[in-house]
Write a structure and sequence with these properties.
alpha+beta
Length: 416
């Protein structure tokens, strides 16, 4: 037998399981502890891409709002793959991205203990939706935010460049420049007046070039197509849907106990030994599920769409010449119409509709075949998301039904 095994005729299996209790993997990841409601409701950019002074100054992130999902049809361009030159249907998320306003910048100095904010400069005029962010209840407040700063700005601008000393300080000492931007939340119809404000790092060029770049954009709009382009791989930062208080079976995926178990079966049977006389943090316990801060990397942009004013048929493709906008029939459920600029990402995005989502440039060099693949959309679905959508446009629906509805209306009038 030993000679037969040595000759390689019989497979030898040495990785046989000794006992189930030694081999059982734990339920749920410990990498996402603590599982509690996040404090960073609007997504926190914890790290920005590495700066490359050889490039022109540019923004590294953008804020947008989740509108909903649909699906697309495209032809795969992946030579060697079985899917190559075949049509596939893929789910996509639509994020409405009205232009952001630049209202200031913060200059940081690199220290042995990390970055330290040295100085900040704000624009001379802030919009009402931006000022609302500084107040809990806007209508009861005196709304005095930035009035003194505005006065100082106007006085300085008569004599020369406003905030000259602070700007020069930033140019001289700072290594990192981050622009203070806010969303135009009124343009995205989500029933909110208070803008979302975020610091967004400016990469590329020298510190002087960065400061001049941001100062030139004060009180100006920054559009999504100036930050991201089609076929780019990006990271998505946001907060997941809140699910409330859940038990261990739902929250950690532990196995239910047997049917006859006393005092319930959706439990952890043993939460630890007598000593140490406390419950260790690795033991699954019931509690909050959802509303966690998450960063999801490597999302591919399938299309960067323009607003309805500039491009009223922004869901048209080369193969599907139907003149239609990206908004499906009846609007995106629980959101409405997308009238501003928008981004189409492959797959899902965390959080419910209307939630602010931060898009960030990738931290990693994108070299895989999927990342470098050129995407050509053949068809974008705009049928109703409220039911079994049969029609892509209202014209198509009217053509199918003909004058049935008109007849019904006239008959109803005659009966009345």
């Amino acid at each position: 037998l030993a000679q037969v095994i040595a000759a390689g005729f019989l497979p030898v299996k040495f990785d046989a399981m000794s006992h189930r209790k030694f081999e059982r993997p734990r339920h749920g990841s410990l990498g996402f502890l603590p599982r509690k409601r996040t404090k960073h409701h609007h997504g926190k950019i914890k790290s920005f891409p590495k700066d490359d002074p050889s490039k022109k100054p540019h923004f590294t992130a953008f804020m947008s709002y989740k509108a909903g999902m649909t699906h697309i049809v495209r032809e795969v361009d992946r030579p060697g793959s079985k899917l190559n030159k075949k049509e596939i249907v893929e789910p996509v998320s639509i994020l409405e991205s009205p232009p952001m306003m630049v209202v200031g910048f913060v200059g940081y100095v690199e220290t042995p203990r990390g970055l330290r904010a040295l100085t900040s400069v704000w624009a001379g005029h802030l919009s009402e939706e931006c000022k609302r962010r500084f107040y809990k209840t806007w209508h009861t407040s005196k709304q005095k935010a930035f009035t003194k700063y505005q006065k100082r700005w106007s006085e300085d601008s008569k004599e020369g460049t406003p905030m000259q000393a602070e700007v020069e300080r930033a140019k001289k000492y700072c290594q990192v420049i981050r622009a203070i931007c806010h969303t135009q939340v009124g343009k995205a119809k989500i029933g909110q007046k208070k803008a979302h404000i975020k610091e967004i790092q400016v990469n590329g060029g020298t510190t002087e070039a960065k400061v001049d770049f941001v100062m030139g954009l004060f009180e100006q709009e920054v559009k999504i197509d100036s930050c991201f382009s089609q076929d780019e791989m990006i990271d998505v930062i946001g907060t997941t849907k809140g699910k409330g208080f859940n038990g261990v079976v739902t929250r950690w995926g532990v196995t239910r106990l047997m049917r006859k178990t006393h005092r319930g079966l959706r439990k952890v049977a043993c939460i630890g030994s007598w000593h140490p006389a406390r419950v260790s943090f690795q033991v699954p316990r019931s509690g909050q599920r959802g509303y966690h801060h998450r960063t999801e990397i490597n999302k591919k942009i399938y299309r960067v769409g323009k607003n309805l004013k500039d491009d009223p048929v922004n869901a048209k493709t080369e193969n599907d010449l139907t003149e239609k906008p990206i908004t499906p029939m009846g609007g995106f459920s629980h959101y409405g119409e997308v009238n501003e600029d928008w981004v189409m990402l492959k797959g899902t995005v965390m959080g419910p509709r209307k939630r602010v989502i931060t898009l960030r440039k990738s931290l990693l060099p994108q070299v895989t075949r999927k990342a470098l693949e050129k995407v050509t959309l053949k068809f974008i679905d705009t049928s109703s998301k409220f039911g079994h959508g049969r029609f892509q446009t209202s014209e198509e629906k009217a053509k199918f039904y003909g004058n049935v509805q008109k007849k019904a209306k006239t008959e109803a009038k005659e009966e009345a």
